[in-house]
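Model the whole thing, not chain by chain.
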Amino acid sequence: MVRFLHTADWQLGMTRRYLGADAQPRFSAARVDAVRAIGSLAAARGCDFVVVCGDVFETNQVERQVVVRALDAMAATPEVTFYLLPGNHDPLDASSVFRSPTFVQHRPSNVVVLDRPGPMAVSPGLEIVAAPWTSKRPLTDLVGAAISELAVDGTQRVVVGHGAVDYLSPDSANPALIGSALVDQALERGQVHYVALGDRHSTTAVGRSGRAWYSGAPEATDFRETDPGNVLVVEMDDGSVSVDPVRVGTWEFVQYDAEVSGEADLDVLDAFLDGLPNKARTIVRLGLVGQLSLAEKARLDSMLAHHADLLGCLETWGRRIDLIVLPTEADYGDLELTGFAQTALTDLREQAESNADGNEVARDALALLVRLRGTA
Amino acid sequence: MRIHRLAIRNFRGVDSFEIDLPADGVTIIEGGNEVGKSSLAEALDLVFAFPDNSKSAAIRQVQPVHRDVGPEVEVELTTGGYRLVYSKRWLRRPSTTLSIVEPSREQQTGRDAHDRVNQILDQTLDRDLWNVLRLEQGGDLSASGFVLPSLSRALEATVGADLTGPGEDDLWDRIVAERDHYWTPTGRPSAERTRLAERVEEAVAAVSAIESQIREVEARTDEFARLEAEAVDLAARQVDLVQAEAEAAGRLEALDGLRQELVRVEADAQRASSDHQRWSQLGEARARLVESVARREAALLESEQALAESEPERADAERALARLTIRRREAADALRGAELAADQAAADATYRRRQIEVAQFRERLERVVDAQAELERVELVLAGVEITPDTVVAMEAAQLELARAEAAAEAGAAVVSAVAQAGIVLEVDGQPVPLAPGDQHTIAVAAATEISVPGQVELTVSAGADSRVRAEKLQEARNLLTELCRRHGVADLDEARRIAAARADAERTRTYANERLVADLRDLSVDGLANKIASLSVRIAEFEASRAPVPALPADLGQAQKVEASTVEVLGQRRSDFDDTEADLEAAQARTRELGESGAARLERVKMDRAALSDALEVLAAARVDHPDDQIAEQVELASAVRKAAEVRLAEAERSLALADPDTLDALAESTRRARERGEAATRENRDQRRSLTAVIEHTGEQGLAHRLDLALAEADRLKLEAERLEGRAHAARLLHDTFDRHRTVARQKYVAPFREQIERLGRLVYGPSLEIELDDQLGISSRTLNGVTVGFDQLSTGAREQFALLSRLACASLVSGNGEGAPVVFDDALGWTDPQRLGQMAAAISVAARQCQVIVLTCTPGRFAGVGAASVVRLGSSEAREDPSLTA
């Protein structure tokens, strides 16, 4: 019986620009903490080793600090060996982080880089078949190449690969796509016994064999991911394989799109944000459309400011926020303008309510007028 | 406000003056300078401004001089709904009283009265207006503004309250401030915006820089991968190249064998050729030797023949020479004989001539000796004689003079004749003259003569005067002669004459002797003469001693000379003969010599030819000992054959080499070598490049470029957003400002229109119907247009500016002063710069304006405002208002 932990796409060193000065360090630290958690989990579950199926690092140009912290996190469980596979983000090219002096110098003995394609003995009767990336644009199916020549000789083989499988990729012209038929065939023939893949950040089974998986990223990295934050504890026993997804992720990416036009919508939005659990580790992106009065806009601003203080990150600007702020009659009523000021106001309102170019500027000008008058 | 009545007392120079003023219309107050007409205007200021206890300078100034009284002002006026009488006295018994008549009666005094009046004025009077509507002489004529609350209200009332209130003014200021925050006065982005835009650019540039660094890393990584692939290719290719080079080397080795063979065959051919050449040269030398022997034999024969042929001629010549030699000897002997004879004859002739010469010399010597003796004697004579012919002449002259003197003395002198009776001795002038008896002694007395007989008598005879003179002359002549005689040592003239004659004789003798000496000595001295004689004598003696007896000595010089001449002739003959013979001999000698030389040459030629032949024969013989002629011929033939064979072999070797194509093979070997070297260089270069790339990639890999890019991108995003927001605010501010400005300008134009029109209405009375004016923001006149010509206010003349200042005040007052509102217009000595015609027109304008307001005109020039219709004219000093009857219409 062989038990090991399958993970991938740690993407260490990843930054998110929308994160502020407070959230970004926590976000980065969480990724290193995930590595530490994986080691602990592997040790706790009695795993023989951990395979990390590519994209260990976000890029080969990653900061030294990230490298040494990651190595340090892995060194925390010396009884667990980490097999690291170079992926498309950190290929084993000339600039590879795995060959960098920092990595080489600080690599603990329980960390092994799968830098040669093909089988590698892990223990008697057990091989890891690696398909490392040596460039960002391989011209062939690296997994297919690694497994095609393997004999059916009773050796248990775990394939460690990275990349998109053909039927999940929209880019069918990509020569590096992993052929799912080949994978299935090799599993069927008994050439290999488990195919551990990386690249897809959501935990996903490949094919129908139940023995080929994307583990997904241990910590979420983006809003688009459907089921991130897991690792797989894999048990192989005499031809049967069981896969147990275990959640290790601590951060959430939440996208919320809504129309807000009036107080009721604002109430709904407020309630949603209020109801989010684990706020400090939740990154929320709002997509808002609608038209608000000056007063409503003021409430929205105040509400968002409040939630931004609580959340890991609240992205409230950019193209996703398409709110028209137009003073209402009520706003204007307070202005009490007379004479030419009154005619100028009428002029501006006409500009703001027209569809002509510059109506946004006119709306801003109206808001400014209200503000200036208000401070009078 | 309307002023109904104004009274002043003890105010400057005015004791008391009071005037009633109509509520609307013009009141003209005339008064000369210093009379105090301006005091009225001043009084209006003071009464409102200073409480009665004020001691301010303004108050003290209006106190009459030298009078202990307090200035007083009383004014009756309506303002707003109030009508009141207000009076005040300062300095002396100060007091203030206020009686409000309307709307309800009210009395106040003192400070309360003062404060109450000011309270009412603050409520009802636009104080700024009050100040503006007063135009004083020399006041500021600049286009002062009319931004006055009362005017604004009046204008707003006119245009329908379209302009804003103070709140809007404040809003407008904020809008301008907001706009100015984002835009410069020239409409460019503010420094803050520019700075932010620059920061955005910088941030974007920073992103680009890091991106480009990352691209570089990627490019290097790709390059490294390419180099690795290339290294594999290079290694494979290198194996092929090394093999190709080895093959080429093998073929080159074979080629080298062929080349060595060729070298060897070439050497053989060279050797055979040189053998053949040597033997051929030997044969040729041998033929030349044989030919040389033959040629020399022929030459010897020829030269021997020439020698034999020349011999007879030479023998003849030698014989002739021998004959001529004998003849020459004979001629020489004859010549010598003749010469001896001639010499003898010449010597003989000389001998005879010398004999004659020596005799002659002896004679001359004798004569010379005689003459010299004579000379010695004469010299001796001459040496003792001093008398010369000149001496004689002088003495003769003195003698003659004496004779003349004596004659004269005797003729004229007294004569004393004494006849001695006895012998006595007379003493005449001291000289004793012994006289025998009977002797007569005559004494001519020239001067005075003392005659005495000593011891007896003494007579003194004195001549007359003439006699004394003559006597003196006589004495002088006598003294002279005596002196001459004494000097020359003679007794008298005769003796002198004798001696002179002897001297002349001696001198003649000397001259003659000298002449003889010269003649005989000629060029010789006496000794020379003697020497000549001696030497000649010696030679003569020698000759005589040596003279042979034969031939006989000629008898004399003539014979000797004859013999000499004949011997000379013979000698000439003999010399000529000898010379002829000599010439013949020389010719014969030359001939002989010539023949002898050519014969010797021929002989020498023969000898040489013989020797040369001998040498040639020797050389030939020696050469034949080394290589007999037939051996040489054999060897030549043999060497020729060997050479041909070698040449054939050489041609074969060359053909073999050419067939091996050495050029191509060399090029091939060279190119495979080069290709291999290039491959090695490429491999090295590839390795170096990979090393250097590895170093660079490792270095940049350590820089955490991805992280830096993320940071730079975040910063750029943040700045872009900030800039976007700032730009949004800037454009909103500008739009707000521009929109407000546009509407405000329109409103303002509408708002100022009534004021402008009122000024134009009044102004057209003065300037005619074409007048138009422009107002600035402060409602001051900025320009005026007449007949289409626009001139800025500041460019107008002083008079025109004063007129417009007055017109605009009238316009303002007439607009604001409806229903007792506003304030009176007060002109103090205005229009001093205006000509009479214009003054009349201004008066009309004042009249028109005064229909709607109160106008008070103070003037020191009576009649200046005569044109103002319906005016009350008051002369200062009288307390009565006087209606001008001519203006009542």
